[in-house]
Amino acid sequence: MKKLHLSLSALAIGVILSANTCSDRENGMAGENLDMIKGKWELQSLEGTPVKMPAGIEQPYLSIDSTGKNLSGYGGCNRIFGEFKVSNDSISFPGLAATRMYCEATQKIEDGFLKALNTTRTYTLKKDELVLMGGKELAVLRRISK
């Protein structure tokens, strides 16, 4: 009976530790990885094509907050907001939303940026660049602040 009690205790501890790890991942927390991607990131390219905004229009960007859950940003016309989840080299942007204005001069860039975010599955960091991928390179963003 004593062996069974010890085995059940060990199993319970394993389940608790496993649940905490899953909970952290589900909440977008990934410790060191999260610390490395927090901050403001400016869009540099979409599918390998450099992004150049018309004169007087702000460059699209993402701001990843320090809580590990929320992001905000600008797509070239509209404000972007939502959640993100990161685990190891995986990243996703579930529930991403944007305001609903139409801007003829920049709409194609914004549509491409939102599409890239919605199809991103993994990422890599190269110095101050965040590369978003989904089978191929979708977008490259440059860190402009932490």
Give a structural overview.
It is globular, with a radius of gyration of 19 Å. The protein has helices at 2-26, 32-37, 107-119, and strands at 39-46, 49-50, 61-64, 70-74, 79-83, 85-87, 90-92, 97-98, 122-126, 129-133, 137-145. The protein has 146 residues and is α+β, with helices and mostly antiparallel strands. Strands 1, 2, 3, 4, 5, 8, 9, 10 and 11 form a 9-stranded antiparallel sheet that branches. It has a two-stranded antiparallel ribbon with strand order 6-7. The model is unreliable at 1-30 (pLDDT under 50).
List keywords for this structure.
single chain, 146 residues, alpha+beta, Lipocalin, nine-stranded antiparallel sheet, two-stranded antiparallel ribbon, 11 strands, globular, disordered N terminus
Which helices and strands appear, and what pairs or packs with what?
Elements (H helix, E strand, L loop, with lengths): L1 H25 L5 H6 L1 E8 L2 E2 L10 E4 L5 E5 L4 E5 L1 E3 L2 E3 L4 E2 L8 H13 L2 E5 L2 E5 L3 E9 L1
Antiparallel strand pairs: 1-2, 1-3, 1-11, 3-4, 4-5, 5-8, 6-7, 9-10, 10-11
